[in-house]
Design brief:
Blueprint (H helix, E strand, L loop, with lengths): L3 E2 L13 E5 L3 H12 L3 E6 L5 H7 L3 E4 H7 L2 E4 L3 H12 L8 E4 L3 H4 L10 E7 L3 H9 L6 E7 L5 H11 L7 E3 L2 H9 L1
Parallel strand pairs: 2-3, 2-5, 3-4, 5-6, 6-7, 8-9
Antiparallel strand pairs: 1-9, 7-8
Helix pairs in contact: 1-6, 3-4
């Protein structure tokens, strides 16, 4: 039986000293970045130069930079781009800036499951997938609750991928409602089919 995680299973201290880069500021990106910030975490948003979302993110009090700089300056990189563009952005701007021991995260399993993104073996690869659109996730969070989420670990060379993933899930509010263990394969296929 799959394990469920709640608030007491996660510790924000696991990521409190890390820099978190949220790549993208769409439906999921804005909710992740704002919820992490409201939980006192060090978060910055990675966008392409000229993005319409740049001024919006800055006006909401977030630090913003181009994706390559944010990836370079972050210990945790959460990819929140459409599946169709994620691999290109990853290859150009994220992969060259990953260091051994970094954590690469996703909110959907598609790019890892179908191998359009193949991360180096030296980084943790995990997924925290909230089960709601970003606007709902943010709304529920600001009222003191959270939306359920999924957690999956694809690579764990640091032996800390689950701890970091659960801390991230707590940072965005998912452990308030419950986080279910899964795999990248299960999440992708149940989402698509």
């Amino acid at each position: 039986m799959a394990k469920m995680y709640y608030e007491n299973d996660a510790d924000l201290a696991a990521i409190s000293d890390l820099s978190i880069g949220v790549v993208g500021y769409g439906s999921q990106g804005h909710a992740h970045a704002l919820n992490l910030r409201d939980n006192g975490l060090n978060v910055q948003v990675g966008l392409y130069d000229g993005s319409k979302s740049w001024s919006k993110a800055e006006s909401e009090g977030l630090k913003v930079g181009v994706v390559a700089d944010v990836a370079r300056d972050s210990n945790v990189v959460m990819m929140l781009l459409p599946d169709t563009s994620a691999a290109e952005v990853y290859g150009e701007s994220v992969e060259p800036n990953l260091e051994p021991g970094d954590t690469l995260m996703f909110a959907h399993g598609f790019n890892i499951h179908y191998k359009t993104i193949v991360p180096p073996e030296t980084v943790d690869v995990s997924m925290v997938a909230p089960k709601a659109p970003g606007h709902r996730m943010r709304e529920v969070f600001t009222r003191g609750s959270g939306v359920p989420g999924l957690l999956a670990i694809h690579q764990d060379p640091s032996d800390k991928a689950r701890e970091i993933g659960l801390a991230y899930a707590k940072g965005i509010g998912c452990t308030r409602a419950g986080v279910l263990d899964t795999t990248f394969e299960e999440e992708t296929e149940t989402d698509l089919f």
